[in-house]
Design brief:
alpha/beta; five-stranded mixed beta sheet; two-stranded parallel ribbon; 3 helices; 7 strands; 21% strand
Length: 135
């Protein structure tokens, strides 16, 4: 049974892991990033989860502040002896995270479509590359 955090993401506990799927398509505004960061922080800090798997299949846009939040979250997980993994990244977001030096604990940034096991093809997640948001 999945749980929701302020309608920004849902998660399901599977053993010592939390599998998170974002409900929003954009992590752009300060308010959304703060809400998501606080919620993910609660999942990390409660001590019951050694793995946090972030499924980015719904995410089309990510701000630099959101990238900073992910880096801080990764540091918290590691400090607590945990593991952070990301999956289903848009190729553009994956490239951006690589440029800033973000690596998940598999050092296989977003290449595995399923957060729990590799796909039979072992290929890159197929997600359309979105156009930049118009201001």
């Amino acid at each position: 049974m999945s749980k929701s955090y302020h309608q920004t993401f849902e998660w399901e506990d599977v053993g010592d892991a939390a599998i998170v799927k974002f409900a929003t398509k954009k992590l752009l505004t300060e308010e959304t990033i703060r809400t998501v960061g606080e919620g993910l922080g609660v999942l990390v800090e409660d001590g019951r989860r050694r793995k946090l798997i972030l499924n980015f299949s719904n995410i089309e846009y990510l701000s630099t502040a959101a990238i900073g939040m992910l880096i801080n979250l990764n540091n918290k997980m590691r400090a607590n002896g945990g593991v952070l993994r990301v999956s289903n990244l848009d190729p553009g977001i994956c490239d951006l995270l690589k440029i800033v030096g973000f690596r998940d604990d598999d050092d296989n940034l977003g290449a595995v479509p399923s957060p729990l096991k590799p796909s039979p093809s072992g290929g890159q997640a197929k997600v359309r590359r979105p156009e930049p948001p118009s201001e």
